[in-house]
Amino acid sequence: MWGTKVQIMAKLGALVWHSLDVFHQGEYNMSEEKITMAVGSVMLANVHPHVAASLGVMLGKTGRLRPEMAVDIITPPRMEIATARNATIDIALARGHKYLFWLDDDTVCPPDTIVRLLERLEANPDVYMICPKYYVRGYPFKLMGFIERGPNDWEMIDEAKDLPDKDGLIRCVAIGNGCTLYRMSIFEQMVISRQGREWYRTGKGHTEDAFFCAKAKTVIPDFICAMDTTFSAKHQLGTGWVDAENVDYTRLKFQIAKALVHHPERLEELKALVSSWPEEDVYPLDIYDYDGSLGRV
Questions:
Q1: Which pTM does this prediction carry?
Q2: What DSSP assignment string belongs to 22-83?
């Protein structure tokens, strides 16, 4: 039932985009199967309506700009995230897709995201998977990617020193999988190498996407991911969204909260400072207030 709900929302979004895109000449048609792509939506516990609408509009835009593509939406039954991703991969492999795009339930991205990421993969044959610029939804809100500093030494992207190349790409060894386009050849090579079909695993001290990238690296020595910094996606935090425009504020907010745990006596000092600001400057920030949900932070 849930998969049907997502597919209905996606189709509605596609129809809305079709009605708005009046400058495009030609018919909306994804039946000419020249390039096949699976779209996986697997985090089914708490889907935000913005995400479903984003997916639908994005599929509509993809069909308008790349009418030669055939898209297959795969939504497995509700289950643990790594298990759901593994099930989706098996289906995509069985159906012979060339690409796979993940969109998790807590990420919203621009309508042309798939098209832009696809163009990047086509122009950069050394890159196996790619995502837009987006941040971890928890403190310290760094970019969702890892740079290999040395053997078995991965660090999260440092925006101050890990600068993008002239085309706006940061090449790295691992990226988040919540808004990401893959070449299915990654999984085909892993099957040939007899590494088993457990593509993802969630464990203590690592997420399922980091596990996958590490495993891919052992099978494909030249395995490279990339983050396209020329556009951004938003990652949900409680009731707000973490993106390039508010990440500094969000990071500071959590630094203040952490500091007050150790220095509660300074709470009144901070309240007095904020109360001196014009109300119209403070009020718009309320939409990012922490909602009390530990799981989302």
A1: 0.75
A2: TT--S-----S-SEEEEEE----SS--HHHHHHHHHHHHHHHHH-TTEEEEEE-PPS--HHH
